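Hi! If you just cloned this repository, the fastest way to understand the data is to look at a raw example. We've pasted two of them here, unedited. The first protein comes first, obviously.
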Amino acid sequence: MVQPPASRLFNSFFQGGFECSTQRLRAGRRLDVIDATAHDRFALQDYTRLREIGMQTARDGFRWHLIEQSPGEYDFRSVLPMLRAARQADMQIIWDLCHYGWPDFVDVFSADFPGQFGRYAAACAAVLAQEHADAAPFVCPINELSFLTWAGDDVGYLNPFAHGRGLELKMQLVRAALRATDELRRGLPKVRIVYAEPLLSSQCHPDRPHEAAAAGDEHLGQYQALDMLSGRLYPELGGFPEALDIVGLNYYPDNQWFFHPSLHEREHLPSGHPQHRPLSGLLAEVYARYGRPLFLSETGTEGEDRPDWLRGVMSEVRQARAQGIPVEGVCLYPILNHAGWDDDRPCANGLWEGGGAPGERQIYAPLLQELRAQGLARVKHGS
């Protein structure tokens, strides 16, 4: 029988991630996936289900646009039931403060934005201190700064719908994240800071050797935000090594490709492709660069491939751990099926259905079976 992985950081190695995106899309619609999956209304049931199968750690989110509906006025009624449900279910949560979205009155390019986000983070810290006084909270100030910059500027897919201001936007997000980190550590002395970034591989196509430098730049570009946060790049932003505490890495089946100047011409490299890089090697690369504890903060796929994907990921994670790379957890993301961002199509990408009768979820048994095969064990009553 496979021995269950152990984590020195988290209450459980296997984790469940509740999709909590709140961005504006190009059509003007605001997403609120927590509301769409009714997770806010059934948080206690959702956390209890996780704990019953053996997951004692989860990712979840504060929704900034609901908390600060007027500048400087904070109303936490949207998240207090979730905080209290987590305490009641004895569920350890990694809280995102900003998962792509912000209030409509916020201008991320304004000089006040870092301070504005810092004040919001300080208010969140006060609530966490009040509701979880005895715990060491885990907080991710801004999820995927790199993806947010790409989607919000390079392709204008989501807020702030800018073009040609990618570096400026990333610098603003880094300034804001650093301010939030300071405020969180001031208000929560035991806090553990998480930054979750995409884990990618961009390679030069063998038939286009003239693109080698561009492919290399694209591959290294995934580290730009973490380099800024840690002070390795643009130190005038205020980054410093200790800003990086725990490095989360979001890894999906389409995260490897052959470089192409046109985004739509990329050839993705699935796990069976001869040029596909082993996940363990990518994890080793990140650890060599930063020397910080790692975890897969998001991973998963859709449909019947879900168990096979988890099996392959865990094989690589175990290999990385055997090499001394501190991979401290794997978060299935999302843990609840949800509707597609753009077309509301049903995405079968979770462990449970996202809808159904009030508070009820239908589990996807093949994925649970694979989790059991990988060592996920039920939590004994009272443990």
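Ok, and the second one:
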Amino acid sequence: MELLKEVLERIKPSEEERALVNAVTQEILKIAEEEIGKKDLEVTPRLVGSIAKDTYLSGDHDVDLFLAFPLEVPLEELRKIGLELGKAIGKRLESYEIAYAEHPYVRAFYKGFDVDIVPCYNVKSWREVKTAVDRSLLHTEWVVKHLDGRNDEVRLLKKFLKGINAYGSEVYVRGFSGYLTELLIIKYGSFMNLLENVEFLGKGKIIDLEGWLKKEPEIAYKTVEREGESPLIVIDPVDPRRNVASSLSWEKFGVFYFKAKEFVEKPGIGFFFPSKAKAGDYKALLKKKGTNLVTLLFPKPELVDDVLLPQLERSAKGFEKSLKREGFEVFDLNWGYTEKAFIMLEVDRVERPRVILKPGPEFLGERALDFYTKNQKVWIRGKRLYSEKEVKEGIVDVIEDLLTKNQVALGKNLREVIKNAEILINFVPPELEEEAYLFLSKEKWNIKG
């Protein structure tokens, strides 16, 4: 297909770019080897990830340098020495910082490349895996051995997924990981064959490239049983205990499903390189739809996206649940940040009827007959008359009351800032107007999970 050739020309690294990537990665490896030698350590520096597998996209130069320690090194020692070694390497690059995952690692920058320097164990099989990152060595080896020249097919799939906002296994994305894209191409042979078989992919659900269900049935079937609610179960070819697609959400799989169907029916460059959507007037859209927009605005905490965005999602879903309990229909949710963090809720109404108690006079007094005549519902408690009155209660008051009573499930780092949030009804500041329109429009080109 000519279209795919055109896409490849734009996303495949040129020979000059390849030469640069190879030269820089070799420099980084040489620095690592020198620092290992200085400390007289039995550590093997290994390149993993898309650069090592040659599945990276043009302009995407993330270097994953793993420092593989012998299995007999205690975990605490690996963490301590691994961090010291990573810092020593980072000091010889342009800049570095310490980042945290299962254990601390170094994130550095060198000649335009982001470099992750990660300590791990030098494992040879899944039975030796001690930390989550150890498998990366095995992943790289397995993909290099089985990809069989289909590197460009992986590139097409990665770019397609990026174009439809379904790429990335981070907790705030929950899309397709790079490793998952490689395994899908190995399974289906090509980008187009995968898209043409997306129906079978969804219904077949289980992919077992290494035959673990036969080789290690007890372990592999436990994985299948545990992951039964996932949209896909891709038993890791290097570890039968793991579903490679465990982080993939139904929403992101759904986006891929529909976009794949659309592309097969009518291919277009826009799937890979989407043009910026033209935002319209969100106020006119609200008027047309007859719904309402509630936006909570609050200062953005200094948290990394991996922490902040899941907590924003949890908080948005907390408001949805609490408001539904209070009688408001919540159609959809949105969250994120620009200068400030925000939560958007599209709701059916911003007022609800509420009955309040209306105390009257004692029934033997002069005003008792007047109160009795004017009110439809009247009762007596002791000597006093009572009635009830229907009033309109605004959603802002309801939200504030819920927050005061701690009746909304919020992200633990966001509780205080959200309690003091600014609550806007059918209005957003200028920097959120486009976001509000895209959220409310629900156009298919903007489908998101």
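That's it. A detail worth noticing about the second one: Residues 2-132 form a domain with the Beta Polymerase; domain 2 fold (CATH 3.30.460.10).
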